[in-house]
Amino acid sequence: MFKPKYPHPDTYAYTPAVIRPIPVPAEHSGPGPSPVPAKSPGAFAGLVQHSPGMALALAVGGVAGVLALASVAVSLLLAVAITAVALAVSAVVVLFLVRALRQEFMRR
């Protein structure tokens, strides 16, 4: 009851794939230092071209992002300040109303 039941192996024969590296022929056969192999281009090498216009576009984009975040932060702070002023004014009005009602009840 408590012994594990293992599944039966598949009926077909499994042959694992073997990956063999391809030997690279040596290009340098003369005396002297061997040449440095050329750097292979990355996956995104053709998508991004480095130019002065690209640098300018990145700088303008960064400035625009900072300005957008700053405007959001300023608007949030302004909303908090307006809410605080509104609450302060309403608290003063409620205080005057309570004092007026107390004086009216004291006279009777």
Please explain how this structure is put together:
With 108 residues, the chain is mostly helical. The model has no long low-confidence stretch (mean pLDDT 82). It has 1 helix and no strands.
Total beta strands: 0
Shape: elongated
Fraction of helical residues:
40-55%
List unreliable stretches of 5+ residues. none
Indicate the proportion of strand residues: under 5%
Q: Biggest sheet, in brief?
A: none
Q: How many H/I helical runs?
A: 1
Rg of Cα set:
39 Å
Mean pLDDT: 82
Order of helices and strands: H
End-to-end gap: 90 Å
Q: Helix/strand-derived class?
A: mainly alpha
Defining key terms:
108 residues, 1 helix, single chain, mainly alpha, elongated, 0% strand
Record the SSE blueprint:
Blueprint: H1 52-107
Compact summary:
By secondary structure, the protein is mostly helical. Helices cover 52% and strands 0% of the residues.
